[in-house]
Protein 1
Amino acid sequence: MSLRALAAVLAGRLAGWISRVSGRGGSSLPGLVARWIDPRILMRMAARLSWGAVLLTGTNGKTTTASMVRRMVEAQGTTLLSNRAGANLILGLTAAFVQAERWRIWPRTAMALLETDEATMPRACREIQPRVVAVTNFFRDQLDRYGELSTTVKFVRDGIAALGEQAVLVLNADDPQVAGLAGAGFKIFFYGLEGEAGEAGGEDAVDARFCPGCGSALHYQRRYYAHLGHYRCPGCGWQRPRPYIAVLRWSRAEKTALVRIGETECVLAWRSPGLYNLYNQAAAIATAAALNVPIDVIKRSLEEFRPAFGRMESVTAGNTQLWLALVKNPVGFNQVLAAVHEDPEPSYTVMILINDRYADGQDVSWLWDVDFEYWISRLRAGHWFVGGVRGRDMAVRLKYAGVARDAVTVGDGMEELLDQAVKAADGGTLYILPTYTAMLEVRRLLSDRGLVRHFREG
Ligand SMILES: [Zn+2]
């Protein structure tokens, strides 16, 4: 071990300790310090993993998919290190390695499972040389981030181009931009849905309905939401690849999904409502299959699975059921509304909390790209509560979508608004849909009341 690497790890850990005790809790500082001392530290540490690393990327679903994969891998007895939710840039990835151990220098874990931002993929792939790269989907994220979707796809493509030939790809067959990443020479595990499509959700923001090969508009035989579905290119004949992992049927009432894994069909638990969660689950199963996790271990892990922080997480407050679902971009928001719509109850209460701090995306104009017009007439919301820093913008958005003025309560204080909403939902269901920092606030309020365990990221 070089003295420089040793110094990098120790200094990185010290920086992490200082930022924790000083209450700043910065997750990238240890990575910054370690890389400043030894720019090759991530490369060195990743190379020592006996099994290797898995990088998970894509616009939506990384955190949920990662937590499911983690459970499946640990259930078969493999140890792994992972990064904290949101710390998915190169400094966050470096920090995950540097801080993996307390009393030892090098991580003892066999594997690393890392959520990776799309723009970080080229660098992360070069330095980490992962054995598996899993891609969930590509959607236009908050408008102020990277601009064009094609740029985002190119980042991931460049990352894959830096992989060795033994690398395995896990790709969403139903997203043409993701399926289009399949290149010669790699072993690929495709996953997708094959059940009835149901209501696809209006003319959802459509990001990528064009053939990645020749640019022709794709024909869809079936569409689950946005551009996810079964497609074929009339120009060059390219079509959705047949997935190795296919979800054949699902039932919200029974909380199960029938899944084909290779040639085996099995009924698995499906606890998180929403088709987007079904995709996350399929992504996790495909990643686990790529890691040779046996089917019975996958099955058992899903039965024990609890959704990750704020990803359609359910909490009971007295006799009222609370569901928390993070909203962060138009497609994600549409999918959360679709999941609410699947609720068979005749009425429920909905609370939307919109902040515009950095972690939320500072431009709230994306709310106008959410298909409220489509969903408002279909949802059976008895009353709407809106709040957060930009609660008033949200109220305006609902008004334009046709919600009656007296069906909406706008509040400034989050605690007071939460109390009102819980009271209004009395005995029924309250859906709480916050942006990221609003989620932290509401989660803190619930934790103060002992309703949720105190939130720790990661
Ligand atoms: Zn084509």
Protein 2
Amino acid sequence: MTFSQSVKSEILRSVRNAKHCCAIAFLQAVLKAVGSLTLERYGYCFSVESDNVDFLTHISNIAQEHLQVKSHISSYNMSAKGTAVYSCRFESALGERLGLLIRDKDGALGFAEASTLIPTEACCRKAFMQGLFVACGSVVIPQTEDVADFVGSAKYHLELRFADSEFARAVSSVYSAAEFHETARKNHIVLYLKDSERIADFLVYVNATAAKLYLENVIVARSVRNNVNRQSNCEVANIEKTVAASGRQLDSISYLRAQGLFDSLPESLKEIALLREEDPEATLEEIANRLHISKSGANHRFSKLMEIANKQRKKQ
Ligand SMILES: [Zn+2]
């Protein structure tokens, strides 16, 4: 089960015994977002297609229990991915009962304005968003086992996909606290979140608390992993610095030997030069310890060695 699917099934569990007002709001959101309207013998019928039978069963039950509108779920087709797609077809009365279709004074049916559909009551407003996410939402986060692959490249993405741009903008403005970004993709308007904290807030809002805890674990695992990486990057940089310094010191020492100047060096410099020749990979600290002197003392001796070598080079 993908993370998206588990969020959706958690939402569906949480809305199973919703109040009448909220159940209606959930169904309105679903039909407005993904319902398609077809003209049939008895009038305009709404239908919803999905590969999620639990979801279709849920909206079918809402229509039956709260509006006494019958519906029929049938196996519809195979999607491009080879998964079965189901269709839930509602009796024609549903559109008007839900206020999605409005009859004008001449009896002609038209669509209700998008912005008027979004509920004002907090409970229903939440239910409406739950319906939207299950109908047209998706969310991707790095999986804990993939954590290493995603270090540094954030891959948190939650989106709601709308065919109706007017409706998408109404949702974005009513749910401004979610701080959706907007983009156009093919024939759709997409409202999306990229920030892991914003996604966590959204999951809490739609009652997907188990999913939110899972997300938090991923965030923690990633930050631990990032720290470990940062630390080891730091160690690598230090090793590189040691190797580069050691190379410069060895250059000077071999130059002084070649010039026949090594034996005339002060004892303290000869001593440290011999240690460096014995162990090119030793850190400054390790060499200082072997000589029972301070790191800055060892550094000073190496500087002196290189200074003598440089002076000699300039003379030539
Ligand atoms: Zn309500």
